[in-house]
């Protein structure tokens, strides 16, 4: 057999084998790249589905004027002033904390959360931050708080805490509550059940008018 022919045949075979190896490697790279991209996509989707905002315990705001300042102060401290959050995250925290009448404000503002955060805050303030109405509703809550049904430390504590909360809010609205003790104590003790009122009457100082500090000690 012609040695030249054998040499050419071997050269052609080696070249064919080399091409085949290259093709196989190319195919394997394509497959790896495809799998990598699919895996990255799955990972990204998984990541997006599993992202959770940090748990922050917020009070709920239902649109009632007398609840606005307490909610506003708490939300500002925990969310609005939290530099680790962006406006999109702040928007979703705010949305989750609103209910009833207050939640209606953001129903049409879902598309661009980051831009809408400041809009919602402004709308809430314009809708709810009415000083005269807030004072009116705090006073109404004080006057209309339900009377204690039975002698109960828990009911007494809830009554006292509710009065203190409304008084703090009234003070923050500019009301001078320092001279209100006599009126507030009268309203407060009218909410006592019969047994608690008797105990209060035997406890209070005979020689002087009681103060809110006395109700706290009681």
From TrEMBL:
It comes from the Eukaryota. Pfam families: DUF1759 (PF03564). PANTHER family: PROTEIN CBG08539, RETROVIRAL PROTEASE-RELATED. This is Uncharacterized protein.
């Amino acid at each position: 057999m012609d040695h030249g022919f054998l040499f050419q045949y071997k050269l052609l075979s080696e070249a064919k084998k080399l091409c085949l190896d290259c093709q196989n490697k190319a195919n394997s790279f394509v497959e790896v790249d495809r799998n990598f991209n699919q895996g990255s996509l799955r990972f990204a989707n998984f990541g997006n589905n599993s992202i959770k905002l940090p748990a922050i315990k917020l009070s709920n705001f239902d649109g009632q004027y007398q609840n606005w300042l307490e909610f506003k102060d708490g939300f500002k401290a925990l969310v609005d002033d939290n530099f680790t959050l962006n406006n999109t995250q702040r928007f979703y925290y705010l949305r989750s904390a609103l209910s009833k009448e207050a939640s209606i404000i953001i129903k049409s503002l879902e598309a661009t959360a980051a831009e809408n955060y400041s809009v919602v805050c402004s709308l809430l303030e314009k809708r709810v931050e009415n000083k005269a109405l807030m004072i009116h509703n705090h006073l109404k809550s004080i006057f209309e708080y339900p009377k204690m049904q039975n002698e109960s430390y828990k009911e007494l504590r809830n009554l006292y805490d509710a009065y203190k909360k409304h008084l703090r809010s009234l003070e923050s609205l500019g009301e001078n509550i320092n001279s209100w003790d006599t009126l507030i104590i009268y309203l407060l003790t009218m909410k006592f059940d019969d047994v608690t009122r008797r105990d209060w009457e035997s406890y209070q100082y005979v020689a002087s008018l009681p103060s809110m500090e006395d109700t706290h000690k009681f």
